[in-house]
Amino acid sequence: MNSVIEAAHYGVPLIAISLFVDQHRNAKMLEYRKTTIIVPKTDITESNLVSALKTLTQGESGKEYRQKAKTLASMLASRPMPPKERFLKYVNFAINFKDHDDHLDIKLRHHNFFFFYNIDIYAFILIFALIGFYLSFVLLKNVISIIFLTKLKKQKIL
């Protein structure tokens, strides 16, 4: 995401080729803002890249992409609270109220292994699923045996 943040920060339109986990989401986010053109990794050809580059740099569409990228950069630059200021504010808050650390403590860190990873819930669901499969199997077995027994009785009677 560093290149996405850098491009947004400096107001530069992008050609995005997403390869890994969150890159597609980040590219879609900027494509929605009309600052990025996405070229799928399966369609990387010279003509696709040249077409995307021309769209970003030439004509009215290029002007629109550049303008929207600059607007996004100015929005990021004039945020109500910059990241550095927000970080310092929270650090100062933690320092000022260090005697009240129970309010700043994350309660989940005190849970045991089973609660932390929800193993108790998964075990509960697994047990009921196994019981359900077992009961379904027994019911199906009994229904099939009843059907075959009635067929055998009919054959013996006739």
What does this structure look like?
It comes from Panagrolaimus sp. PS1159. This protein is mainly alpha-helical and 158 residues long. It folds into two domains: 2-81, 3-Layer(aba) Sandwich (Rossmann fold); 113-157. The protein has eight helices and two strands, in the order αβαβαααααα. The chain has helices at 2-10, 23-32, 46-57, 59-77, 83-96, 101-104, 113-116, 119-157, and strands at 14-16, 36-38. Helix 2 links the parallel strand 1 and strand 2 (36-38). Helix 1 (2-10) packs across helix 4 and helix 3 (46-57) crosses helix 4 (59-77). The longest helix is centred in the C-terminal third of the chain and has 39 residues, at 119-157. The chain is flat and about 90 Å long.
Question: Features of this protein?
Answer:
mainly alpha, 8 helices, 2 domains, Glucuronosyltransferase, about 160 residues, about 70% helix, two-stranded parallel sheet, Rossmann fold, 2 strands, single chain
